[in-house]
Amino acid sequence: MQNQDPVLNEAAIRLGVSLRQTEDELTRNMLAGTASFINCVGGVNGDNPTEITRSDVDGVVRALKNNNAKTMIHMIEGEDKFGTAPVRDAYFALASTQLIGNLDNVSGFTHKSQYPSSTGLQYSEWGVIANLRFFLSSIGSVSPNASMLAANVYNIFCVGLEAYACIEQDGYSANFIYRPPAVAGGPLGLFATAGYKFAEVPRITNDLWVLNLRCTLA
Description:
Strand content: 25-35%
Order of helices and strands: HEHEEEEEEEEEEE
Number of strands: 12
Structural class: alpha+beta
Shape: globular
Helix content: 10-25%
Largest sheet: 8 strands, mixed
């Protein structure tokens, strides 16, 4: 039997979440600052870029295909289940949760609840439009007041296989560091410390295989 310290366990869990979210934010900022972008133009909100539409999705898929980008996920074959439809092989589309509602209104959108199989689905996946499967996050990329009408612009990173990578510097992987309180350390040895550190650089490996589809809200 083990009597593990619940405070340290909780700290380790929370630090683990912070570590991975920090890595996500660094990668997000790298893609926002370096990836080639395409503005949505098929919408009717009068802004530049406009809200996302099916023609904008088709345009970015066509560009990735023309650049020989490989899809990230294989197709899901259709099954004899009520209200479902087959899902094409697809690229990742990484975006903000603020697009919920706008995505649902795009022609041809299928929510993940209507996939013929739920095997292997991620919690963050929202649905699919044509050959883009959308993964949404509360820390998805947003450029504040960047549109023609000073509205927020939402960056949708459309990613093919091996388009970008996170490189550990000199093999330096993430470390969780715990320092227990000193047994005989006097007043200065009363407290423990816990934290993490890592040395990592996200970078695009092929500029042709990742595109930033920029849109506003309807």
